[in-house]
Amino acid sequence: MAKRFLLIGAGGKTGESYARLLQSHGHFVLWYDKNAEVRPTGLDEGLLEHIPSDSLVWENLKDRFDVLTLTPGVPLRHPFVLTARQKGKNVISEVAYCAPYLKSMRIIGITGTDGKSTTTTLAAQLIRLSGEKGVECGNFGLPLSEIALNQAGFIGAILVCELSSYQLEEPGDLALDAAIYLNLAPDHLNRYSGIEEYGLAKWNIAKLLKPAAPLIVTTALLPENTELWQGVHPLLKFDGPVISIDTQNLHSKNFQIIGDNICDAAQHILAPVSGLAISGHHNLANLLFALEAVSALRASDLEAHLAGIVAKLTALPHRFESIRQVVYPQMHFINDSKATTTQAAITALENSAPPVFMLLGGQGKGESYKELGLRLKLKDAHALIYGECRNDMARDFREIGFEKFTLHENLFKAFHTAKRLVLQRGLNSATVLLAPAATSWDQFKSFEERGDYFRSLVAGLSSGGARFETL
Question: How many whole angstroms separate alpha carbon 130 and alpha carbon 139?
Fold first, then answer.
């Protein structure tokens, strides 16, 4: 039966595909986005009404829709959502609406604070290189609504679905064949009361598993290894199989990294690590998660062909992306623009060769930067802080006794100051690391735009434009 859906958060890729899906089912869409510059495109005008950005008023809209539906970025605590629920309106998320149309598909779900997109891409590549159809989707790649809209095109595919905490708040009946919980660090604290509530939203991924489907989780989040959720740890009530991964020692149930090789549980060498497109200890940990998930789905005889498969893996841009240039061979430039949390920035710092000149800043997420300051102090790194949150970051650094930083208006000035410091000190080698520990939204539209700008700065190191390549 056709209904009238009020879609909040309709702008962007997910909102556009979701609106098309709703209309394909005969529903009328009241299209709303808080961004006044965004307009609906490519939709059936006969089943569409655009609600202006300043017109989301309950009294004016309460009798004009049957169902309130949300894209993932809209908080459940939004006043309009709370009122709708209080008044008895049906409220449904994009993930929950799409779930019934995905039941015939095999799905790997991936959540965590950092490394979700990298692990999603690695898993999908492993599947494709094994001879099957792997599709990145959810919070990264194709929106779930796009897949639900074109189900015939995904017959036989294995969906590798990145799921944010937002998406896991109300995932409906989404059914997973394997689930990955990578890690947990403070993030989105403007949406959650604290790290425990944020982490619990992510633990919802375990509830989505089909019977006997494995949960693949970092050992750091096991009940015996964390002080979070004391007495009410979600795993205490989980009765499915659990595969834990020791991300420090790079060891899991079926795979481990020993020296320069990927080995099986019996320590037989499966593939060399040298020459992989991905770099850094943290990305090898992400690879272990992906290997366990793909192996659990028996996508193919993975182990027998692993050497040839991993050699063909490619890295995502803006995720600890090494950029080679020939003008200043003593400088190693790393683009980790996706590092929008302090934990992600710490991980990048720990994986970088000293001395490190770290470019930090942007629009903050409400995090404390004290732990990051302690790690910078321990590494004897120099921080170059720019953007909207630079004074907050500087304050936290001073409070823990880290003073080796400079303040800058923008990324351009921070970058060139880092280059000048390396040259002035006559260093034979140095790492210039962009790992901002903040979002990009004060000066850039996205972390991708910020990362591309960083790459352009590297390319422009000579008047003729430095030649560079991504490793």
Answer: 24
CB distance 166 to 72 below 8 Å: yes
87 is in an annotated binding site: no
Q: Which of 52, 3, 50 shows the shortest CA–CA distance to 31?
A: 50
Residue 370 burial class via C-beta count within 10 angstroms: exposed 0-12, middle 13-18, buried 19 and up: middle
* 33 marked among binding-site residues: no
Q: Is the CATH number of domain 4-88 2.160.10.10?
A: no
Domain range summary for the chain, segments of one domain joined by +: 4-88, 99-310, 321-470
In degrees, rounded to 5, the angle at the alpha carbon of residue 322 between the alpha carbons of residues 320 and 326 is 160
Residue 463 has pLDDT above 60, yes or no: no
Rg (CA), the chain: 23
- Give pLDDT tens digits for 356-372: 999 999 999 889 999 99
Inter-residue contact 152 to 270 (CB < 8 Å): no
Edge-to-edge strand ranges of the sheet holding 178-181: 134-138, 158-162, 106-111, 178-181, 215-218, 242-245
Q: What is the CATH T-level fold of the domain 99-310, as seen in this structure?
A: UDP-N-acetylmuramoyl-L-alanine:D-glutamate ligase (3.40.1190)
Give me the helix-helix angle, 342-350 and 281-296, nearest 10°.
Answer: 110
Q: Reply yes or no on whether the pLDDT at 142 is more than 60.
A: yes
- Residue 30 CB contacts under 8 Å (≥ 6 apart), including other chains: 4, 5, 6, 7, 49, 51, 61, 64, 65
Instruction: Read off the DSSP letter of residue 142.
Output: B
Distance CA 45, CA 33 (A): 17
CA angle 151, 155, 159 (to 5 degrees): 85
Summarised one tens digit per residue, pLDDT across range 242-300 is 999 999 999 999 999 999 999 999 999 999 998 888 889 999 999 999 999 999 997 55
Please name which of 67, 32, 70 lies closest in space to residue 49, comparing C-alpha atoms. 32
112 annotated binding-site participant: yes
Q: Annotated binding residue at 115?
A: yes
Looking at residue 304, its pLDDT comes to: 82
Q: Looking at domain 321-470, which CATH architecture does it have?
A: Alpha-Beta Complex (3.90)
117 is in an annotated binding site: yes
Work out the pLDDT band at 395, boundaries 50, 70, 90. Answer: very high
**Tens digits of residue pLDDT in 421-445:** 999 999 999 999 999 999 999 999 8
